Amino acid sequence: MRFGFPIGLFLMLFLDGSISQVFSVQMFSASSVMISHLVVLWLVCGVLFEENMAMPLAKWAAVAGVVFDLYYTGIFGVYVFVFPLVVYLTRQIVKYISPNFLSGLLIYFIDITIVEAMSFIASRAVHMTSMSGSSFLVNTLGPTLALNLAMFVVLYFPIRAVYNWLK
After folding, report:
1. Given CB 3.0 to 4.6 Å as the disulfide criterion, which of 11, 34, 38, 115 pairs with 147?
2. Cα-Cα-Cα-Cα dihedral sign, residues 41, 45, 47, 50
3. pLDDT above 70 for 1
4. Cα–Cα separations (whole angstroms), residue 164 to 39, 104, 106
5. pLDDT given for residue 158 in this prediction
6. What are the backbone angles phi and psi of residue 107, rounded to the nearest 5°?
């Protein structure tokens, strides 16, 4: 797990970019934007499948955030804080909800909403976007949630098998 988790994390990091590149016509149209968040999926699954193992998920999340910021976004510092925040919030929620497929779907829904909202707020703060909040909800958040929840449904059990194999 010590080596498998970071390898999977960086694989997901580069798959995010690859999916965005390959399916750019479908994901980035004039009316809507869908953003793949496989890194968040890997981090959320890390918390869900962590059980009694103490993994340094927040540290790896911060490292992935640095790479994500430097490679994909023009704003340094957004994902450095958002990815560890996702790990922290997921751990807090898991204290009260037993981790299973449906609760994981709910947690992932909350985490993607937070990631996208924080990214939107940061983009608005540095004037990278002039999109209104309602336009963001309809044209970005909705399609992004649909894409990522579908990816969660498809990838949850294979990722669980990988985590079980790594243990």
Report:
1. 34
2. negative
3. no
4. 19, 16, 22
5. 94
6. -65, -40
Q: Which two tokens stand for residue 120?
A: 């939107």
Domain that holds residue 38: 4-166
126-146 pLDDT per residue, tens: 877 778 888 889 989 999 999
> Which residue has tokens 């965005």?
20
pLDDT tens by residue, 24-45: 888 888 788 999 999 999 999 9
Phi, then psi, of 56 in degrees rounded to 5:
-80, 65
Tokens of 6: 């970071």
* 128 within 8 A of 73, measured Cβ to Cβ: no
* Token pair 């929840």: residue: 149
Q: Which two tokens stand for residue 161?
A: 């098998």
> Which amino acid, residue 137?
L
Question: How many distinct structural domains can be found in the chain?
Answer: 1
